[in-house]
Amino acid sequence: MLMLPRRTLLTATAAAPFARLARAQTPALKLGVLNDQSGPYRDDGGMTSVACARQALVDFGVPAKGFNVEIISADHQNKPQVGASIARQWIDQDGVDAIVDVPTSSVGLAVNSICREKNKVMLNSGTGTSDLTGPQCSPNTIHWTYDTYMLAKSTGGATVKQGGDKWFFITADYVFGQSLERDTTALVKAAGGKVLGSIRYPFPDTTDFSSLLVRAQASGANVVGLCNAGADTMNCIKQAREFGLMGSVRVVAMLIQSTDVHALGLSTAQGLRYSESYYWDLNDRTRAFNGRVKGKTANGIWPNMTQAGNYGAVLHYLKAVADMGVAAAKADGRAAVARMKAMPTDDDAFGPGRIREDGRALHPVYLFEVKKPSESKQPWDLAKVIAVTPLEEAWRPLGEGGCPLVKS
């Protein structure tokens, strides 16, 4: 009776080296999700972005497709030097093949340069500045989800058409806020509007926006454009309502996402208009994706466009790796990105699309209006679509960005 356990043990022991050898010979990729996990953008990205990246592995079929993928993550604290240090360690010491997400444009541009220098892949979802596919475009980078030009055209353009022709900006004083103000100013003026002024505040160290809102109200503008994101945008909207500013001027959140709307609550956010390239209730495919991932996210969050963008970008990268081979993809990040550009994109979060020469992923953009509490059927039933910009019209024209990769 004692022989059976012993034989089982011997068999397992003898087989273990071969099992380890088989595992060792299985090709493997390593991805690093780098974002804000403790600061003002933690709910716009954070661990829910990690969950969405991992969902891409599940949906793609890792490891059934013949290779393994490991995902690690870190908090860049919205500091370029911290993000750059993590990126270098990941690549030089930890064997990371692709860096994912990277919100906060100053961090994103720093990591963009490192990935180019090291010939690794950057799958960017969180960086907003349109410079990432403009003067600082890279053959190693895909910009997946949104950018400041898209936000300016969709939200800013619609506001001017509705009579909001005199603008004042409250701007986070770093690359993202500056780029968003710049791109929105250009589109407002092109549409016949005027910019009466702006004020920039230190990021991420500001929480009291009362004096900024008072100055905006006194400017004579009929639109106050918030060129910020995350907790800053939510604080501005809350304080604007407290001061009665929402009744006298139109407060426009140039970047606000479904997670922010949910946190604000419909009674505070109702009537706000904003743009996203993904929303859970767009169609059957988006509802199916949300259904698969929502139970795996941080704090019960239903993914916003930035978080879902990590799913879409990682899934497309895995398709390119499978097409070209793991060894080739690991050896040459530029080649992997080139293969991504050569293949049409298609996933449940964003639907069919493509990637341009400058690294810009193209998909439709949706203008939403936040519902009244009486219109909502459940806690994440937040908004309704009021306009759609087709993928070929939603983004800055290819020849206008100044990307050196674009051949004239």
Task: Tell me about this structure.
This protein is 44% helix and 18% strand. With 408 residues, it is an alpha/beta fold. The chain folds into 2 domains: 26-146 and 282-363, Response regulator (Rossmann fold, 3-Layer(aba) Sandwich), CATH 3.40.50; 149-278 and 365-389, Response regulator (Rossmann fold). The longest helix is centred in the first third of the chain and has 23 residues, at 3-25. It starts with a helix and ends in a 19-residue tail after the last strand.
How are the secondary structure elements laid out?
Blueprint (H helix, E strand, L loop, with lengths): L2 H23 L2 E8 L10 H15 L7 E8 L4 H13 L5 E4 L3 H14 L2 E4 L16 E3 L4 H14 L4 E7 L2 H16 L3 E8 L8 H9 L4 E5 L2 H13 L2 H4 L1 E4 L4 H7 L1 H4 L3 E4 L7 H10 L11 H20 L1 H6 L1 H10 L11 E2 L5 E2 L2 E6 L12 E7 L19
Parallel strand pairs: 1-2, 1-3, 3-4, 4-5, 6-7, 6-8, 8-9
Antiparallel strand pairs: 10-13, 11-12, 13-14
Helix pairs in contact: 2-13, 3-4, 5-6, 8-10, 13-15
